[in-house]
Design goal:
- The structure holds 2 protein chains of 2 kinds.
- By secondary structure, chain A is an alpha/beta fold.
- Chain A is 33% helix and 12% strand.
- Chain A has a 9-stranded mixed beta sheet.
- In chain A, β3, α3 and β4 form a beta-alpha-beta unit.
- In chain A, α3 packs across α5.
- The termini of chain A are far apart.
- In chain B, the strands form 2 sheets. A 3-stranded antiparallel beta sheet of chain B has the order 2-3-4. A two-stranded antiparallel sheet of chain B has the order 1-5.
- Chain B is α+β, with helices and mostly antiparallel strands.
- Chain B has one domain (11-95): Orthogonal Bundle (Arc Repressor Mutant, subunit A).
- Chain B is globular and about 35 Å long.
- Classes of the chains: A alpha/beta, B alpha+beta.
- The interface between A and B is medium-sized, with 24 and 21 residues.
Chain lengths: 378, 97
């Protein structure tokens, strides 16, 4: 008789039922010419020599498509730091995936962009750190970044890729939001994503320099709402607000292990890009096990599936299937416990303390950054 | 609110937006930048008509004939559905003239 497959269980041993992922974030390298102080990569960066090959990515993409993934977001670091980026894109398209390229625009020449067009990139998302050279270059820690980005955006338009501008906002650039929206409009972007810094990893190290004030968050909300009306049918504005100022937490990842997965430069598979901040959790690698097995059977993906693992106040909350208890990594960072109610939730016992700390950080007069850099050696 | 589409507009799927089969889930999906939308039969039927040549008015007449339904009803369904996608920048328009 054939062995029955193992029954997926959450971290308490309750049975869970995995669904199918829709999207995969492929962080093909952590190398990046920029040094943004809120980088979403882990503080412990993966080095070039442990990056998996383009053919490995091809295998991962085929497994992902078989598993139900429809779209891949090819990101980094700066994906253009890999010379075989076009080959990786070709593999993704051959697997039948829709390819989003998430880039800083730095280090991809016009010729390479043409090569990526031929390889089948469906959509380009270009990051924006600020407006004008002084601000953009200071925040990204890269002199000349602004001019290079604007040149890149012109080539994107010339070739005809659909363009999304991703503006990451925080205390030091949020007041320029109207200019960012106007810039995206001028560049012919179909969409601008205005994302408030999420305070994990590198951003956590820079809270005092980045935390927006409550006034800024409210003003940004108003600006977004007005611009949405004005730009209806011309440009979409997606807005990720500062959840430190929210009543309820964000529905992080649409639920842990629910809709998406992340594969890192060395093939490590994560339920979200920040999951390694949960220091006790062990993550598996596509070099050792199939993506399907990792998705369906690994302890990491099953740990927080379903709602049975939730403590109070989540367990009895009517929103537990709306926001899934919020973000596990934020619970880890702020409560020191990955299964706790996300402390940005107004129902969390830690909420008052979190709000006070956010307000203190927002009032800090520092503008100095700890830039994201690889540590020496390796 | 002003109408985003008039009967003379020719709707089309721009670059980066395409109709696909999701064979695993056995559904039709509209793939677009950073978004995949499940389509029901009606949505699929409407988007299948966007050939970049026919206007909204022509598409509506053709659908009404094919499904033997009143033009007025089809017109509202098609316009509302396409308006939602125009707002998301997943359908573009060109002028017939």
């Amino acid at each position: 008789m054939k062995d029955l497959p193992a029954q997926p269980r959450d971290l308490d041993g309750n049975t869970v039922t995995p669904g199918l992922p829709m999207a995969m974030l492929a962080e093909i390298t952590h190398r990046c010419p920029l040094a943004c102080p809120y980088c979403s990569n882990p503080v412990e960066l993966i080095r070039a020599k442990t990056e998996i090959s383009a053919d490995d990515w091809g295998r991962v993409f085929r497994q992902a498509a078989d598993l139900g993934v429809l779209q891949v977001h090819i990101s980094g670091g700066e994906p253009g730091a890999r010379r075989d980026l076009a080959q990786i894109v070709t593999h993704a398209r051959d697997a039948g995936l829709y390819v989003n390229l998430i880039t800083s625009g730095i280090g991809i020449t016009r010729d390479r962009l043409l090569e990526l067009d031929a390889a089948g990139v469906d959509h380009v998302q270009l990051s924006l750190q600020g407006i004008r050279p002084d601000m953009a270059d200071r925040i990204s820690g890269h002199f000349g970044s602004w001019d290079k980005k604007m040149g890149f955006a012109d080539w994107v338009t010339e070739i005809g890729f659909p363009l999304t501008i991703n503006a990451v906002v925080h205390r030091q650039n949020m007041d320029r939001l109207p200019d960012m929206i106007a810039l995206a409009e001028r560049l012919g972007a179909r969409r601008i994503e205005v994302a408030t810094v999420q305070f994990h990893g590198w951003a956590e190290l820079n809270r005092k320099a980045l935390m927006p004030t409550r006034d800024q968050a409210e003003t940004a909300r108003r600006i977004v709402n007005e611009a949405r009306i004005r730009l209806r049918g011309r440009m979409v504005i997606d807005y990720v607000p500062a959840d430190h100022h929210a009543i309820y937490p964000k529905a992080c990842m649409g639920g842990w292990g629910s809709l998406g997965l992340n594969v890192g430069p060395d093939g490590t598979v994560l339920p979200c890009h920040a999951a390694q901040s949960i220091d006790w959790m062990r993550f598996e690698n596509v070099q050792d096990r199939s993506l399907s097995d990792i998705w369906h059977l690994s302890d990491s993906f099953n740990a927080f599936r379903g709602t049975e693992w939730m403590p109070e106040p989540c367990a009895s909350c009517e929103r537990k299937n709306v926001d899934f208890g919020g973000c596990r990594c934020q619970a880890m960072a702020l409560a020191g416990d990955a299964r706790a109610t996300d402390p940005v939730c107004s129902k969390s016992p830690l909420h008052a303390q979190i709000v006070r700390r956010a307000e203190e950080d927002a009032a800090a007069d520092t503008t100095e950054f700890v830039y994201r850099r690889m540590s020496k050696g390796g | 609110m002003t109408a985003l589409i008039t009967p003379d507009d020719v709707p089309y799927l721009p670059r980066g937006v395409r109709l696909e089969n999701d064979q695993l889930r056995n559904i039709r999906v509209l793939q677009a930048p950073e978004r995949a939308m499940q389509l029901d039969q009606i949505g699929d039927a409407i988007l299948g008509e966007l050939d970049g040549a026919r206007s909204l008015a022509q598409i509506t007449r053709d659908l009404a004939a094919r499904y033997d339904a009143p033009v007025e009803q089809i017109e509202g369904d098609v316009r509302d559905f396409l308006t939602g996608l125009i707002e998301r920048r997943m359908v573009f328009l060109r002028d017939i003239t």
